[in-house]
Amino acid sequence: MTIESVTATPSAAASTRRRAARAPVSHAAGVAGLYIGCIAGALALSALLVELTGGSSLDVFSALLDGSLRGNGRIGATIGVAIPLLLVAVGTIVSNRAGLVNIGQEGQLYLGAAFAAFAGTRLGIHGPHVVVLLLLAGILGGLVWAGIAAALKYTRNVPEVLSTLLLVTIASQLVGYALKNQRLLLAPAEGRSNRQQISRQLTADTRIPRITWFGNEFPISAFLAIALALFVSFAMARTVWGLRLRMLGHNPRTAQRAGVSAARYGGAALLLSGGFAGLAGGVMLAGGDFGNYTLVPGFASEIGWTGLLVALVSRQKASLAIVMAFVFACLRTGSSFVASTGVERRITDVVQGLLVLALLIPPALIYLHQRRRIQNAAGDRT
């Protein structure tokens, strides 16, 4: 062995270490560039569609910003919408991690709001502690409705994707019936027209307190939603329960061999998912950003469906759902200002759909790239 080869060996090893250290950085930069490119493409396509419909893309995007962020007090309104979106998304992430597809959050949220309205207006209890009772009632409503799907799943092997979806319609009919019956939720005839189907309004001491921050007013439940999202994120990544739930979602057969009961952990995941949706309904009712503290037909306002999209683009990461819930809330609150530009308000739904696609394309491309690399490596070994 020559002196040159001996001295070259440490230099080659150092070069290999430097390349290995740069690899994660370059990979992260590539992933970030892919996301930025897809989002930019979605925005460009949205602008093109606005122009083709006879509107001004600059005016539309400016109106979206005014309605969601720049207008006086609009950030507070956006936060108020983001709260239930985040709660629904977090619950969806819990069930998805267990390999279950719960798409009935709209019905679970609606029933949770109905339970909360009954607890807040029909039990005859007053005082600030009623807020806690009201939110617990909302959680109970969501739990009950998701529990039906869990029972059908693990006793009769009915796919949860079907049962949860069909239960949305039943929940809507049940709440509609309750809003026609004064013994349940319908407000007394005094002070309302005969055709109005609304519940009593929550009294001032049974509402979630609101705070004002730099001119923006929003309920304090925003901090509860963020805390729950961070807790779920920690539980999924750092606890034995989270590990077993992820194991069940990745490979149910292996999980059962390891002693993870599908009925126990899967059923619990579905119940938690419904409980989060029910809590979202209670927060919507008592927070004041929906329905003026009253339950009305159509109260859910498609928050359950939009929360599903938030969970989808968050890639089953509860912490990332905090940001995504705010983004989707911006689109929702900003859409109310779009009509002033002369463009159909529904154009924001198109923008939302394009953004969802833009956020889903990078993970699919990364997965295909990794799969191709594994196949090539397996081919080289053979």
List the helices and strands and how they pair.
Layout: H1 3-52, H2 57-70, H3 74-97, H4 105-121, H5 129-156, H6 160-178, E1 210-213, E2 216-219, H7 221-238, H8 240-250, H9 252-257, H10 262-287, H11 303-313, H12 318-338, H13 347-381
Helix pairs in contact: 1-13, 2-3, 2-12, 3-7, 3-10, 3-11, 3-12, 4-5, 4-6, 4-10, 4-11, 5-6, 5-10, 7-8, 7-12, 11-12, 12-13
Shape: globular
CATH architecture label name of the domain at 78-320: Orthogonal Bundle
Sketch the major β-sheet. 2 strands, antiparallel
The DSSP helix count reads 13
Report mean pLDDT, rounded to a whole number.
Answer: 88
Using the coordinates shown, work out and report the CATH topology of the domain at 78-320.
Answer: ABC transporter involved in vitamin B12 uptake, BtuC
* Binned strand content: under 5%
Explain this structure.
The protein is mainly alpha-helical. The chain has a domain at 78-320: ABC transporter involved in vitamin B12 uptake, BtuC, CATH 1.10.3470. Helix content is 73%, strand content 2%. The protein has helices at 3-52, 57-70, 74-97, 105-121, 129-156, 160-178, 221-238, 240-250, 252-257, 262-287, 303-313, 318-338, 347-381, and strands at 210-213, 216-219. A two-stranded antiparallel sheet has the order 1-2. Helix 7 (221-238) packs antiparallel against helix 12. It is globular, with a radius of gyration of 25 Å. The two termini are 33 Å apart.
